[in-house]
Amino acid sequence: MQRSEILIVGATGQQGSATIKALAEAAQQQPAPAPRILALTRSASSEKARSFSAHPAISSVFLVTAPPGDEAQAIPLIDAAVEHGVRRIVFSSVDRGGDARSWDNPTSIPHFAAKHRIELHLRDACAASAPGGAATTTMAGLRATMPPDRAMQLVSVRDIGRFAARALLDPGPWAGRAVGLAGDELTFVEAADIFRRIVGHDMPRLWAPLGRGVRWLVDDTGKSMDWFGRVGFGVNMEALRREDEQVQDFESWLRTSSGWVADSKV
To answer: Which of 228, 233, 241, 260 has the fewest CB atoms within 10 Å, measured from its CB?
Structure first.
């Protein structure tokens, strides 16, 4: 029997690397033969499409994109994956106000709206590949995730990888779901206090005039910051912890995953 293969697109980035690590850790705990992990780092869509012809055993794909050009990176790959019979596609997206609201809320932020269009394309492509409701393709979207008094939801890259690995290895509970991920919700002041207590010195800051200049010059960044201040992410963190009580908050991330504690020798 041919061993299944999982394609990780963006394998050298933080999310891709975290997903590969989580898959490897899960493989050590399973008696069944572990799937083979294929790492793809190039951004050319033609290269991505050729991956499916060269590796017909690919059954699952984890996909993360970066602006600009999210759609050019994602849509050709999704179409090629569906055409070649890939059964599970996990797309790392962005929360836009909660799991239900995100489906209908592209926002005015260009790269948020691009990810929204990718989500809809992926959902429709999966539905079209499974007429009559027979699920031949599973879609899971991971919607990951300011004024000083405005709390912002945060998610650790480790947890993105862990949830992506779950959706790839056990797709049943994740079929058709788009799940917001966040482990903490803090204001900048609260985050700075935790950082100082755990690491032993102040959290690095950007020179304020430079930050305001970036917001003014870069339309996408300015709209993102305005949206965070007015609306913000809407992840149901209590429900998420019912699925996994080991989701990291900011303090546990600092202590175990960030590298800051080791670097500070505290």
So the answer is: 241
